[in-house]
Amino acid sequence: MVERVSKTKYNFEHPAGDYKKIFETVEELSEPLPATLTGRIPSFIRGSLLRLGPGLFEVGSEPFYHLFDGQALMHKFDFSNGQVTYYRKFIKTDAYVRAITENRVVITEFGTCAYPDPCKNIFSRFFTYFKGVEVTDNCLVNVYPIGEDFYAVTETNYITKVNPDTLETLKKVDMCKYVNINGITAHPHIERDGTVYNIGNCMGKGASLAYNIVKIPSKQKDKSDPIEKSKVVVQFPSAERFKPSYVHSFGMSENYFVFVETPVKINLLKFLSAWAIRGSNYMDCFESDEQKGTWIHIAKKDPGEYIDYQFRTSAMGLFHHINSYEDSGFIVFDLCTWKGFEFVYNYLWLANLRQNWDEVKKHAMIAPQPEVRRFVVPLDPYREEQGKNLISLPYTTATATMREDGTIWLEPEVLFSSPRQAFEFPQINYEMNNGRNYTYAYALGLNHFIPDRASVHPSVLLTIVVCPGAQRQTYCLILNAKDLSEIARAEVGVISPVTFHGMYKP
Ligand SMILES: [Fe+2]
């Protein structure tokens, strides 16, 4: 069971506005910087902490507007023989290389439109218009292994193979070539043997939208690329025929997939016309359905089989699953949710995040509020009577109730709730506990959308901390996962912009 986090009174005030510096452009490094050490690095930490985030927030005179638009910068803290170095490189995606070459935004990003080259004559502009908008490969969200390779990723159909040692960009891979998906999340699940599962929306039966779970096998004996053997293992239907929900992650227990279909929808008509209409971007295509609430879907993993029970709960926003596991005929899954139906990304425009602290606070007052919730679904719900709680696990207050219309209404157990204080970017001891009953989850305190705790901006456990006011502005902090006490830190004299996700590569 997740241990409840006690609510402590903190005072998070940022009069200096230091946080603005984590949304500013930096340069890549030509060689790794040695870090200054305090404490002793545990001998079992031999490897690299790899993280991704935006590093270039404007090109020439053109700014990027949204938190997820800056060009992908890969960071690496490297640990060997008790020494630590810090290194970073821009991923040489098409979006980046062409932006640098033409000194303007060439490929439309999540919340920033690319405009046709004003220098081209009217005829070539006409053709640019009809060629449509290119899909971005700006892989600023996460990095994960496939077989023996490593990929920097965003949420489109493009993933980018990188060298995790040199941070060199190797090749762009189009997942559409291998499986029926329109995009694929930055949060796959990876089994202990290296098999990767991921989810993306797709065209399903009868031209309806659907969601496919894709399986990429582990490394191949014949050394071939496992991506070539990618396949769809199961399909989830869409609550709305032409409007798939935005999907950021999913859950996987030992034998089941959990997919939460939230009311944040992609309006396909708007989306398709955005390909032709100048001045549209991805953010323009989202809309929230106030009526539909949230649909929970379950599927068997092997062999893949959709389980057609109609689990429903109230509207919520969701980006990150914490964990999912089976217990006595139930699936328990824990989520970092956001209350209501409004899209949280509407609050992540850079202009809002860079405001003065009073404005940042006001902004967070009107935004959806965070809450960590535990849901439980029964795997065999039809045996019980209508109106009765079907959940009999002794340790949770989460309920599931069969209603007259055959839907099963889920009410969560609230694990942690504190206004404007999110428990987000969750981490668990993944290799040991993913898909299994577990005790501890770790996360980042997101205070009014600014990732911070008292004027530092950490990520999790092995964490990159940015402290803009200090002499050495960035450090890798090594915390004891038992009590979060500091074991060591490795500081460098350069600032790191915000990072989203990453991995420890032993
Ligand atoms: Fe994420």
From TrEMBL:
Reactions accelerated catalytically: lutein = (3R,3'S)-zeaxanthin; an all-trans-retinyl ester + H2O = 11-cis-retinol + a fatty acid + H(+); all-trans-retinyl hexadecanoate + H2O = 11-cis-retinol + hexadecanoate + H(+)
PANTHER family: BETA-CAROTENE DIOXYGENASE, RETINOID ISOMEROHYDROLASE
Bilayer topology: Lipid-anchor
Annotated GO MF terms: all-trans-retinyl-ester hydrolase, 11-cis retinol forming activity; beta-carotene 15,15'-dioxygenase activity; metal ion binding; retinol isomerase activity
Note on how the cofactor is bound: Binds 1 Fe(2+) ion per subunit.
Localization per record: Cell membrane
Source organism superkingdom: Eukaryota
Major location category of this protein: membrane
Protein name: Retinoid isomerohydrolase
EC number from the UniProt entry: 3.1.1.64, 5.3.3.22
Pfam families, per the entry: RPE65
One GO biological process term: zeaxanthin biosynthetic process
